[in-house]
Amino acid sequence: MSITDNIIRSFRKTVCAEIDLEGEGLDRFIVYTPFMFDDGDHYVIILRREKGTWVLTDEGHTFMHLSYAEVDLDTSSRAKVVDQALASYCVKRRIGELRLLVPGDQFGDALFSFVQALSRIVATALWTRERVASTFLEDFRALMTKTVPESRLTFGYHEPQSDPDGLYSVDCKINGMPKPCFVFAVANDDHAQKATIACYHYEKHGVRFNSTVVFQDQTKINRPSLARLSAVVGKQFPTLGERDRIARYLREDILGSVDGT
């Protein structure tokens, strides 16, 4: 029995029967599995020999595929899932490539671990819209607490005199200036509408404040909602991905302001 037959038998015994190999040059094989992305494309898995050691690799395809689907794997929650998946199954990340060394002749066990790691990473693309919004809000809060002293932050703020029931809440208020800064985290049209209404409410009741909006993705907000929000807020950041610009603005323009203007 050839080494290829032994590898296939090990793969099929440990993972599933629908596994096959196709040779592609010397000591390089495409591993065909039934595991797929949500759009129907199969995982790309390559088995190749490097300096006498067999390695399973996706050759960078998994992260590239998810990036095409506009899945941001750099958010703190997704990054945590990715790191945990890689650590759990001993998969290494080399730039964008995922790799797993095959110990000895344990091809089946290695493929099982590799597929499990890929599946957990790919599953983050299937999070619901609500989960994505929740992840964005978690990342927004993390950025605020990292940038602004905690003693100057109030999350979920509402002005007690004009809004005792908390109907017009502000995602984050930065205190410590004569004119505080209201910062809104906007992930969707509903968030944009709530931020707009809150600003109008506090303007109507004579509350003095500066306002800033951080979007998850400004291009995903419908034009009428964006226009209404733009009419009542000051500074806007089109995506939370502009972390450095947001942090610099908060430190220099907001925390560094003398008169709160």
Describe the structure.
This protein is of the alpha+beta class. It has 2 domains: 3-126, Yope Regulator, Chain: A, CATH 3.30.1460; 129-254, Trna Endonuclease, Chain: A, domain 1. Helices cover 40% and strands 20% of the residues. The protein has 8 helices and 11 strands. It has a 6-stranded antiparallel beta sheet with strand order 1-2-3-4-6-5, covered by helices on one side. The protein has a 5-stranded mixed beta sheet with strand order 7-8-9-10-11, with helices on both faces. Helix 6 runs parallel beside helix 7 (223-230).
Q: And the CATH topology of the largest domain?
A: Trna Endonuclease, Chain: A, domain 1
Give the overall form. Answer: elongated
| % residues in beta strands | 15-25%
Q: Using only CA atoms, what is the Rg?
A: 25 Å
Structural class assignment: alpha+beta
Lateral strand order in the biggest sheet: 1-2-3-4-6-5
Element-level helix/strand string: HEEEEHHEEHHEEEHEHEH
What number is the mean pLDDT?
A: 88
Would you count the extended β strands for me? Answer: 11
Largest sheet: 6 strands, antiparallel
- Please name the CATH architecture of the largest domain: 3-Layer(aba) Sandwich
- Cα separation of the termini: 79 Å
Name of the CATH class of the largest domain: Alpha Beta
Q: How many domains would you count in the coordinates?
A: 2
The number of helical segments is 8
Catalogue the unreliable spans: none
